[in-house]
Amino acid sequence: MTVRRIGVGGAQPYDVVVGGGVFGELPGQVGPDAAQVAVIRPDSLGEVARPALRVLEAAGYTVHDMGVPDGEAAKNVTVAADLWGRLGRAGFTRTDAVVGIGGGATTDLAGFAAATWLRGVRVVLVPTTLLGMVDAAVGGKTGINTTEGKNLVGAFHPPAGVLCDVATLPSLPAADYAGGLAEIVKAGFIADPVILDRIEDDPDGATRPEGRHTRELIERAIAVKAEVVSGDLRESGQREMLNYGHTLGHAIERVENYTFRHGYAVAIGMVFAAELARIDGRIDAGTVRRHRAILTSVGLPTAYSGEAWRGLRESMRVDKKARGAALRFVVLDNVGEPSILADPSEEMLDAAYGAVSA
Ligand SMILES: NC(=O)c1ccc[n+]([C@@H]2O[C@H](COP(=O)([O-])OP(=O)(O)OC[C@H]3O[C@@H](n4cnc5c(N)ncnc54)[C@H](O)[C@@H]3O)[C@@H](O)[C@H]2O)c1
Ligand SMILES: O=C(O)C(=O)C[C@@H](O)[C@H](O)[C@H](O)COP(=O)(O)O
Ligand SMILES: [Zn+2]
């Protein structure tokens, strides 16, 4: 299987390595300075993490296997504090390193632990979900959720390297695989319409790791993310476009107490943002229909409870793109042309939600 390296620029450039069996590159990414390595991974992913643990042990590191709760259940301050305790007891110093293995929730947590331990130690990320590979592990956003909102506590802390071993994908449940497709579709709508063409060409294949266009979809989505974050690590401008669908999406996750898949919430959020753009006269009804058709074709939801609207509207207030009382949404002026819609009226918001409410 071919290996592709996608470079991420910035003050500390690194590679996103995509291929089969790339775990072997872990020691090279962890580097020669570390004596100890903390491997942070879900308790449930012992089998998936084992080859990585073996490679690190064989390279001579003292490896601490730090299991955490599965997925989103670990992305909170209780688990982060437990990790700080374990790092402290192991005597982790500034030259030691963290390796995060798992889905996006786990790599966000591992990145956050690395960002906060001693104010920042080296972290290498090994995403094992589609979503982790195409989005979460790339770009240096780390964080945890709080009761009040999604990712409200975090830090920008880019990894030293990202290893996407596509051989881990076949064991991923289909529903979680579909969640990753939402971020791939997002990359298509905001920056690379070829992604949309490939999914429309073979929607069934898009839902499977062995699909005809799967490698291309993964690499194109990573390339979109790498390009954006290379120029704007701290989200002072262009990076906001990666938040397409996330203002409503994060609010849905919050009202569901973080038990609703991120990708599913973002899928609904993208249709909401598309409806907002249509109401604002930026895109036509056909482009909104294209959102629904593509998302539905790969098994993603495009509607949500009408009764939830008041709670969602309240939750959106803490969106990181908001400025004061003004909400700011990423919308499209056209496919591949994202822009910001600032402070839409309550009537517009109500109308757009009416169009996605079930
Ligand atoms: N930092 C960022 O830039 C960024 C970007 C996008 C999303 N995110 C975050 O990513 C998270 C969503 O990530 P996700 O969709 O990967 O969810 P997840 O991390 O919850 O993983 C989904 C499920 O798949 C399991 N799993 C992981 N790899 C597996 C494998 N190879 N085989 C079988 N099961 C496997 C996990 O244990 C979990 O149960 C959210 O918290 C979201 O906020 C962050
Ligand atoms: O990397 C980014 O920037 C993104 O917005 C990517 C999103 O897919 C991701 O879910 C991110 O975690 C959202 O960031 P937040 O700052 O809105 O919490
Ligand atoms: Zn996301």
From TrEMBL:
Principal cellular location given in the protein's record: cytoplasm
Residue span, 3-dehydroquinate synthase N-terminal domain: 67-176
Domain named 3-dehydroquinate synthase C-terminal: residues: 180-322
UniProt gene name: aroB
Organism: Lipingzhangella halophila
Pathway as given in its UniProt record: Metabolic intermediate biosynthesis; chorismate biosynthesis; chorismate from D-erythrose 4-phosphate and phosphoenolpyruvate: step 2/7
Cofactor(s), names only, from the UniProt record: NAD(+); Co(2+); Zn(2+)
Alphabetical list of HAMAP family matching this protein: DHQ_synthase
Protein name as it appears in the record: 3-dehydroquinate synthase
Domain of life, per lineage: Bacteria
Binding site for Zn(2+): E183, H246, H262
Keywords from the UniProt entry: Amino-acid biosynthesis, Aromatic amino acid biosynthesis, Cobalt, Cytoplasm, Lyase, Metal-binding, NAD, Nucleotide-binding, Zinc
Single GO term (MF): 3-dehydroquinate synthase activity
Residues where NAD(+) binds: 70-75, 104-108, 128-129, 141, 150
Function: Catalyzes the conversion of 3-deoxy-D-arabino-heptulosonate 7-phosphate (DAHP) to dehydroquinate (DHQ).
One GO BP annotation of this record: amino acid biosynthetic process
Organism ancestry: Bacteria, Bacillati, Actinomycetota, Actinomycetes, Streptosporangiales
